[in-house]
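Hi, here's the filled form for the chain we discussed.

Project: internal
Contact: R.S.
Residues: 417
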Amino acid sequence: MAESNFIDYVKILCRSGKGGAGSAHLHRAKYIPKGGPDGGDGGRGGHVYLKGNRNLWTLIHLKYTRHILATDGQPGYENQSTGKDGEDRTIEVPCGTAVYDAETGQFLCDVTEHDQVVRLLKGGRGGLGNTHFKSATRQTPRFAQPGEPGIEKTVILELKLLADVGLVGFPNAGKSTLLSVISAAKPKIANYPFTTLEPNLGIVTYRGQQSFVMADIPGIIEGASEGKGLGLRFLRHIERNAVLLFMIPADSDDIRHEYEVLCNELETFNPDLVSKPRVLAITKSDMLDDELIDQMRSELPADVETVFISSVAQRGLTELKDLLWRTINDERNRIPETLTHRDLDARHREKAEDEFIFAAPESEDEAPVDDTPNKARGRGKMTDPEQNQREWSEEYWESDYDDENKDFQVVSDPDDA
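And the returned structure, exactly as it came back:
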């Protein structure tokens, strides 16, 4: 069986560039035997950014490009020339991508809007040249500041589809059929369980002018939290939906019991899903007459609005869309979003990705700073062993870098960081 192109969970290795070393060069020129220090500062290392792209809907491009390595900053030069900054790396991801630390599962950041840019890893700051350390009592400092090291981190990217309505139900409940009828989506439909193996999105037109997005996920069964069926892998895609539409066929033995089973599986996956607004749709109602529908209403759950529909017979669909539209736009349902900032649960990890072992290549731009050719070009060399081993406090770094102390910073453009 061919592997699906829908990838919503991937593990990658990111590394920001290290800062270039400052130059310890002493100026020498004709008729100027002792010109004093003129070493320039090192360039900063490249940052690693995340950028939202609404034209992407899967993380498959990262499954085959797992190493994201920014380049290092170049050392400073003579004549107070600053080294070249390292090149930044920008990772384009679908909107709704959350990032976690692969080692601890800690939530790091997320990207939810198109063109939103988040700095994932900060590049190392360039070291200061010996010009910054001259004084009346130390007129020829023969040392410079080394560059700040970069940051290497293995992260997990998890895609959570952004939709207004999420479909929840057992296999063969009619979820894909409903999506194909009220939207232009063409999910696979067949008369056997687990026909849908990956989420599908559809845009539902409402009253000719408005529209909302509906997400269809593979069916879940009782015991999915224990790994039965497809497990709870795809339930991450309804965490950010505004409304949950539960779908249960009219020919079910016990509609109330099936509804309670679905609610229990959602609560097991994420307790915050309990507070989301819900709508219950009884599908395949073309098999029922009005008298039987009235009798069934007394047996349905009382804490959720219910509508009887038939996708094949086009029955009750307008009433369903009216109910969904009202629920989506109800101010009482606009609860604070807390799901985004949860750490990655160990039960929700994918073993195949977590066991992936990286063999990170070395940076191609690691230029030595203490060999003869570099010295001839004026690049700095740390000549004082004590200064080379010292811990440099923040006061010795450039002040214009102080605003980048935050680990994760949302910026409008990578050049602004």
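Let me know if anything looks off before we file it.
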